[in-house]
Request: fold
Amino acid sequence: MNRQAHPRTDWSGRRIEVILGNPAHGGACVARFEGRVVFVRHGLPGERVFARVTEDRGGSFCFADVEDVLEASEDRVERVCPISGPGGAGCCDLSHMTVAAQRRFTGAVVVEQLRRLGGVDREVTVEEVPGGASNGTLWRTRVRLAVDVVGNPGYRRYRSNEVVPELACPQIDPHAYVGLADRVWQPGAELQVVLDADGGRHVVEIAPPAVAGGARRQGRRGAASRRAAANAPRPEKVIEGSGRVLERVGEREWRLVPTGFWQAHRGAATTYSTVVGEWAQASAGATAWDLYGGVGVFAAVLAEQVGPSGHVVSVESSKTAVDDGMEALADLGQVAFRHGRVERMIPELPAPEVVVLDPPRAGAGRDVVAAVAEAGPRRIVHVGCDPASFGRDVGLYRDHGFELADVRAFAAFPSTHHVECIGLFTR
Reply:
């Protein structure tokens, strides 16, 4: 049966009055206007607002930003980030809410994604991650700044390459910004700024992406070319710092390149390691997998559980991360690092008792989940940084006979719609 297509509509720029409903994945509230769904950012559930449509590709829905609040929620506060908000940078999109409201907002999204994509009805309370200020600021240890066409550093506007040349986002300590606006940087470059475990600052200038001729085209092919260029390796120049960032979890130290991956929230690595340790429960002498293992933070936890007679295999696609992890865990002979893509390496790995995986934002996906399930682990601990991809992976595990035995969610990105989920799967 053919569905009747929604008539072509373009409300771009239109100002509408709506009452905001439930939170949606991505930080918006759901509203309805003249039979269409409108995803409205910078509001709170229950508010009556005037919103301006910012994007409309036709069909049954469009996107808008709050312009004026006619009836405010009691959870609305003065925005803690001066450069976010409608038309501003894409950083702190929930900073107009109390911290408690932020957690209810993101928790509702997690619950909905678990129900809709994972087929699981579960109450979820988003928990605090220690290490930031009580108002949802000063939690971040590293930022990636953009440089505009005249050499000023700043943050990109929401869904745009345009740069807001103001170093005022309060996610990170103001010390991170000192002196950066006083010099002219290479236009189109990026700056990686890190405050390490001892408070030392590291600044790296990353050269602009090499834009091939195809990247100048408009449309999907041009966008794909630009993404490929942005993700390709680029020359890096250490401007400040040693080029080796110090990080700690417990008594163990890691030294990694400033552009290498480490959890952005200063308390996240320790918090997640604690949960992984509690849930993995690897036996002495057992084999455990640490997939998408990075520099081996979770591998260190698993190594303690399996002991010298056990075996931990950490698989990571970044050669730099593997090298840094091998250096940090050189004293743990039971840990073996493998460099390669997870989906290609799994068939070569010994059968595991426990699997821990921390995939990128897109999630593990069908092939990896199937391969992990086929390996027959007793327990799986899955870390997900996007509630939608996490919900999809939950559904995939359930298709293979694993059930979500427990789940926790963490406010690892205060003042934003992002939330981290950790799930324990057993069968």
Notes: The chain has a mean pLDDT of 94. Residues 99-118 form the longest helix (20 residues).
